[in-house]
Design brief:
The protein is mainly beta. The protein has one helix at 2-17, and strands spanning 23-25, 33-38, 44-48, 53-56, 64-65, 73-79, 85-93, 96-104, 112-118, 122-127, 133-137, 142-145, 153-154, 163-170, 173-178, 183-187, 195-198, 205-210, 216-220, 224-228, 236-241, 246-251, 257-261, 266-269, 277-278, 286-291, 297-301, 306-309, 330-331, 342-349, 353-360, 366-375, 378-385, 393-401, 404-412. The strands form nine sheets. The protein has a four-stranded antiparallel beta sheet, with no helix packed on it. The chain has a four-stranded antiparallel beta sheet with strand order 2-3-4-5, with no helix packed on it. The chain is globular, with a radius of gyration of 23 Å. The protein starts with a helix and ends with a strand.
Amino acid sequence: MKTLILSTLLCLFISTELFPQWIQQNSGTTKRLLSCFFLDANIGWAAGDQGTILKTYDGGNNWFSQSIPSDYNIHSIVFTDSLSGFAVSYKFVGSDRYSQIIKTTNGGANWSVINQYQDFVLTSINFADSGNGIAVGSDGVILITTDKGNTWYFNGPLFAAWYTSTFSKSKNLFWIGGNTYGYLLRTTDLGSRWSYIAIPIETPINSIQFTDFFNGWACSESGIVIKSINSGLDWEVLNLTASVTLNDLYFCDKDKGWVIGSAGKIFYTPNSGSSWNNQSSYTNDFYCIHMYDSLTGWVVGSGGIILKTTNGGGGATNVEDQSLELNNFYLYQNYPNPFNPTTKISWQSPVSGWQTIKLYDLMGREIETISDGYFEAGTHSSLYIVNSSLPSGVYYYRLTVGSYSATKKMVYIK
């Protein structure tokens, strides 16, 4: 009898702790869901195409429609308390673009248009507290509010980028990411001044998050995750290189985090990004994740899908860690860039073999060999220490592995 009880308990433990448990909920819609937000473990909203807004009072067991008659797609939704909420939406009419900021003061039962715009698309909205918020979008548009979202004023464009993500821990610190050409934007005074923070990749950033003053992460259109441990002053590429678009991420603390993307990917790290597991066997595109704590969270995506976990997603569909997406070659942007006197060059190879990185000038003339040797399949890095005789300027570095080669540009400043 003891053996039977122990075996039963062991099976329950294994099924609960080791197998993935992202359970699909009944959303009642097939519309694409682009955003979700939860105040606590019970009350939350999901929003998406054609004015779709859903609300739950019981952690997602039941979802109720608060949709508005609209041909606008809601791209981002946020609440500052149980009654006050905001969303940004957009639509295309031919080549014309329109956007709205909408607001509710009764928990989503009714929504009103606060502002309507033409010629750009709003993609993300975020509040630091009940009074101070930011909305961003295409064409370098930045909108700021300091009066609980009643009025919004233009703070941009700084340059004609397509901003896709915002994050704030306080009204004195806002981050913006997007198609910003190897930089993130940061302000410490509600947009009076913006700083350009260099990052080691040039592909669009889709999501940014900091769990505290020091530790932050961002994920990109090209399937790369970057991390900072010094308040965003420096960033490093983590060893997850997904062959899909990564749309959102959520970290509960400096160790436990999730990154989601297209083709049903939900990646989990228990150790701040040192290793990753895939927790999903779904095929929907996922756009937003919200974790209430390290166990309870939700993911929304295409086809009206809503997933919920109450055990942190369980384990992995298979224990692949970071070899999961190690099926492509990839040459990363060097970091820092520009640099003096050293910079780190990283690359990924799905095969073992002789791997070479060489430096060239603008005329294509070979300058020197940075790395040359046999490497196992995986992700590798080489620290390049510049030759003191090398003049300032633009240079190219090229990775060659068998018949594969890739080239990136870097700038040396004396």
